[in-house]
Design a protein that fits this description.
single chain; alpha+beta; GMP Synthetase, Chain A, domain 3; three-stranded mixed β-sheet; 3 strands; 27% strand; globular
Length: 79
């Protein structure tokens, strides 16, 4: 998988997650992909400072990204 294909797959994953975040007044942006194994995202809107955002990141975002891009090892939220 090329870096461009990886980026597209991660964007597809984020598109799948986005409606759930937006329904709570939040959003998510892809910041970077490092070494084709680490993804940096930024939770936005109501997701910033939300007490469940770490859980959302691990269970929802990371799981969905790994479904589309299994080589991703970690997802990091950049505040």
């Amino acid at each position: 998988m090329t870096t461009e294909e990886l980026r597209l797959n991660i964007e597809k994953a984020l598109d799948e997650i986005r409606p759930f975040l937006q329904s709570d007044g939040g959003d998510i942006s892809l910041i970077s992909i490092d070494n084709d194994s680490s993804v940096k995202v930024r939770l936005e809107g109501a997701c910033v400072g939300c007490s469940v955002n770490q859980m959302t990141l691990k269970s929802g975002v990371e799981m969905t990204i790994k479904k589309y891009a299994p080589q991703i090892q970690e997802v990091i939220n950049i505040a």
